[in-house]
Amino acid sequence: xxxxxxxxxxxxxxxxxxxxxxxxxxxxxxxxxxxxxxxxxxxxxxxxxxxxxxxxxxxxxxxxxxxxxxxxxxxxxxxxxxxxxxxxxxxxxxxxxxxxxxxxxxxxxxxxxxxxxxxxxxxxxxxxxxxxxxxxxxxxxxxxxxxxxxxxxxxxxxxxxxxxxxxxxxxxxxxxxxxxxxxxxxxxxxxxxxxxxxxxxxxxxxxxxxxxxxxxxxxxxxxxxxxxxxxxxxxxxxxxxxxxxxxxxxxxxxxxxxxxxxxxxxxxxxxxxxxxxxxxxxxxxxxxxxxxxxxxxxxxxxxxxxxxxxxxxxxxxxxxxxxxxxxxxxxxxxxxxxxxxxxxxxxxxxxxxxxxxxxxx
Length: 361
Ligand SMILES: Nc1ncnc2c1ncn2[C@@H]1O[C@H](COP(=O)(O)OP(=O)(O)OP(=O)(O)O)[C@@H](O)[C@H]1O
Ligand SMILES: [Mg+2]
What we know:
Belongs to the ABC transporter superfamily. This protein is an alpha/beta fold. It has a domain at 264-358. It has 14 helices and 14 strands. Strand 11 (339-342) and strand 12 form a beta hairpin. Helix 5 (141-153) crosses helix 6 and helix 6 crosses helix 8. Magnesium ion (MG) binds next to helix 1.
């Protein structure tokens, strides 16, 4: 079974007045069918740009995808909408397709805007950090959810509204048959995020990408949204990319974790393996920075001293070398490749933390 998404060597740059921002510098990862992959890293590490560039959501210019591929295995291979088979159109409209029907790859980076728009609405749902900017302030909630069903599933208006009410109930909106008439400003932040989630799952997508979906919410509501995602994972057969800067949230929700630094993956592992056996000094720093009952807040800042890399500088060596206690000559000479160090465990580091010495690569 191929992964549903296979991103290889993705590069994304922004041309700004200050120079070229090297936002994403060779990101590769896979997303397996039904799995939840967390992408973790501090602010500016390239998490959002990575996923947004896959679906044509970065501003061009100044942004540009300068290399790589993103094979999406949920649709048939033709790219011209007018020449697509019934099966491919079914995929694009987000309709259920029997598992034994043919799966072929489609390179997201090569698609036209029109094709991307269809996939975005139907097969790949997005949940952004700020629910207010994802919703239309002058359209009732019900219409916003049902609109996507009429557009992508071709449902008649009444049926779409009925389905919207069921969906809103499913994501935990009380009295959805009454609340569909409300406008976004009449909802709390947490309720708005539930609406955005309802829109993202409306067409039974193959992939849901959630970009820091809880950061704009207070702690109790954050926990509720995390619980809702866990429930959706069980109810729907969906693969999830969950982006966060907080490794603490990840344990409860992800199967695997991709740690990013300076626009590159530095470690990827099954979640328990990452917690028990981190192989990259940056990951150990992130884990050390997690709040613990026996530590005081001021301790945490000591875990990863120093500042994130300057993304205006082209990457010629390990981006973490400046802040790394273990850096030696090789780390300043070239970029460490992502190599396998165990089952489903990869790391991009020239230093072997286990052996306490340089790694043979
Ligand atoms: N429109 C833009 N123009 C110029 N630079 C940009 C633009 N969008 C993003 N960048 C730069 O790309 C880099 C990666 O940004 P990105 O938003 O992916 O970070 P992130 O990991 O999602 O961070 P955060 O946790 O703060 O959301 C940053 O250096 C950022 O300044
Ligand atoms: Mg971001």
